[in-house]
Specification:
The protein has about 190 residues and is mainly alpha-helical. The protein is built from eight helices and no strands.
Length: about 190
Amino acid sequence: MQRIDDWNDGARKRDFEAAVLPHLEAMHRAAVRILRSDDIAWDAVQETLIRAWHYDRLPSQPRSVLLSLVRRSCLHILRCARRRLHHEQLASEDLHGPCCSMDPAGSALDPAATAAQHDELREAREAAARLTREHREVLDLVAWRGLTYREAAETLRLPIGTIRSRASRARAALQRVIAKEVEQGEPC
């Protein structure tokens, strides 16, 4: 393997092309199989080539690395498209709130704000799924359904003090789970 830093620009370009060009069609076919679109597959291949260009070292047989990068690019494209579709569907279904303060009738919507709210709620529910059953029950009743502590206590047949302490511990645990996910998270 050669270090890319050691290559001059012309030699680097020639060596990169020589290493990548034989695998270009295989990369494209793999992307088409995943994405089911010729045009979007070329976008994935292009992203892959950009990522590969920035590698410090290129293996002597780069096919497996390139196909792995294509797969990752395709999955990234699919995730982003799925999120975008989900946000657009939610925004089209949501008929609450004006787009801006300049809209006195409230007839326009702010799809970005609506999508962000739905995304935050979904992420919070996913994080809550990692909590204990007792914490999930209390969060479900108090935070998601909007019951008072007294109503939650009656529903679960527990003392109100137990509900308050569980709710407090559940919120703290949820904050820890979300903070840990933010540290480990990856962008769209």
